[in-house]
Amino acid sequence: MSRPIDPPAPRSPAALPLDGRDDPFFPFDLEAVEPADRHRSMGPTGHSIVLVGLMGAGKTTIGRRVASRLGLPFVDADVEIERAAGCSIADLFANYGEAEFRKGERRVIRRILDGRPLVLATGGGAFMDPATRAVIREHATSVWLRCPLPVLVRRVQGRTHRPLLNQGDPREILAGLMEIRHPVYAEADLIVDCGDENVDQSAGNVISALTLAQQPRIVPVRLERWQYDVTIGADLIRHAGVLLTPVLRQKRVVIVTDDTVAKLHLPRLLEGLAEAGIRADTIIVPPGEGSKTIAEYERVTNTLLELAVERGTTVIALGGGVVGDLAGFAAATTLRGLPFVQIPTTLLSQVDSSVGGKTGINTPFGKNLLGAFHQPVAVLADTSALATLPLREVRAGYAEIVKAGLIGDAALFEWCEANGQTVLDGEPDAQAEAVSLACAFKAQVVGDDEREEKKSDGRALLNLGHTFGHALEAELGYDGRLLHGEAVSIGLRLAFLTSVRMGFCAQTDLDRVTSHLDRLGMPARISDLGHVFSAETLIGHMQRDKKMRDGRLSFVLARGIGQAFTCRDVPDDLVREVLITESCVS
């Protein structure tokens, strides 16, 4: 792994010229630090594995055992630094100081990681350097070996080669280091708790974490003046602190969630934020569409102001579409705009409302008639949260995935036909793929028409099925008898039925849509709701919809699967006829 060489003669700090970069020319021979054998095993992640943590955590002993079991080389960064410098780390600290030492350490780590995968144990302070963290993040999977204080104290007793431990009582020094370093260590890709387990057990825990961990899927949303990522994967709520730290203006957030979601997910979110040193306050609202009111909006904004939020304080929406819409509108309007993060916990919100920046609340005159465009700084779609949903909620969210395919991605609809049942059955990979595909489609549409300003098509196409669906929701008073996704499911079929009646679409396309919805137990017909609706009343709700232009109804219709378009030439009589055909009274 490393070839023996004669160490270079040490030079005084004053004699160190600069090499044209940000690093000084240390008395290091980097040729002594040889990158890993480029023909060795790839390991479980395909990346190098870098172990971080405080002195005494077992990075070297555990690292050797992990490397042996994975068939990878093992490297101790401190050993390589001393080999390259020809002197001890204590001497380097004494001669050059910690700040200069960290620069040299970064060069050595970069050199070590410039090759095939290996297991690298770093010094306790290496990960504290932002530039070193960036190098590790680019080239490796980082693992924090988190160890309790009593164990660390016992393990470092008698060590005299650690400069930091020679400055006083080891317990006090380690306790102080934990307070400073743990929030930064929490930015590691994985966290493995190590206590009094033997080396084999600890190594097994590391390997299990590496094997189970899957890199999240990233869907970029790129707008004219804003950009952010939708991160999709398992257990993201627990690691939210690490994931959000790079985008937060200050390490302070206010979480808006509802009673139901708080019981399920809030403790994990708070734990993850605390580990990253992020201060969090919480506002809890009642669950359901009833929270999207002016009264609840006023309560949330008043609470934000009572908490003395600043312009850099981020509002986190933890929950479904209702929480996202309410919290987003509060963020958009408090102090003329606070940073905003979406952590959607339902399939519907993960594939639809969390992406695109639409926020709002309802009024007696209709749904989402008060609102604002306010893009998030990040979206974390934790697919683990979907396991807590009843099948009805999953079906409601799935309707929005089907909608994306019907609008403009025939291949996505074909994917739904082949994989829809697997998504509803809760298979994690299928759900993650579905969320990724739907978000990618929506990101493309939103990127082309962020504020729905195009006179035709554009972002308005995302309203396929919504004109009918919103009318049904409004008539039932948003009381929970009809979920938004269920209304969209029925609206999709009605939009294709209207398209057939107007001669835009073939009957075979309508049959294909209907068959898919029926096969998966999705609501497809107004009669499925067990309620008698008036055609005139539903048309009245449509006429109060915010998509009205110049007093005319606006529909999204289709010329076929994946060929949606906006249409403002749908006669009221034809809409009435479709509704009556669907069991509405005249």
TrEMBL record:
Residues that hold NAD(+) according to the record: 321-325, 345-346, 358, 367
UniProt organism field: Gluconacetobacter azotocaptans
Pathway field: Metabolic intermediate biosynthesis; chorismate biosynthesis; chorismate from D-erythrose 4-phosphate and phosphoenolpyruvate: step 2/7; Metabolic intermediate biosynthesis; chorismate biosynthesis; chorismate from D-erythrose 4-phosphate and phosphoenolpyruvate: step 5/7
Subunit structure of this chain's protein: Monomer.
Binding site for Zn(2+): 400, 466, 484
Gene behind the chain: aroB
Binding annotation for substrate: 78, 102, 124, 181
Protein name: Multifunctional fusion protein
GO cellular component, one term: cytoplasm
Main subcellular localisation: cytoplasm
Reactions mediated catalytically: shikimate + ATP = 3-phosphoshikimate + ADP + H(+); 7-phospho-2-dehydro-3-deoxy-D-arabino-heptonate = 3-dehydroquinate + phosphate
Cofactor remark from the record: Binds 1 Mg(2+) ion per subunit. Binds 1 divalent metal cation per subunit. Can use either Co(2+) or Zn(2+).
Location of the 3-dehydroquinate synthase C-terminal domain: 397-548
GO molecular function: 3-dehydroquinate synthase activity; ATP binding; magnesium ion binding; shikimate kinase activity
Cross-referenced PROSITE patterns: SHIKIMATE_KINASE
Compartment(s) where it occurs, according to its Swiss-Prot or TrEMBL record: Cytoplasm
Similarity comment text for this entry: Belongs to the sugar phosphate cyclases superfamily. Dehydroquinate synthase family. Belongs to the shikimate kinase family.
Highest taxon of the lineage: Bacteria
Binding of Mg(2+), residues: 60
Every 3-dehydroquinate synthase N-terminal domain range: 283-395
The keyword Ribonucleoprotein appears for this protein: no
Cofactors demanded by this protein: Mg(2+); Co(2+); Zn(2+); NAD(+)
Annotated Pfam families: DHQ_synthase, DHQS_C, SKI
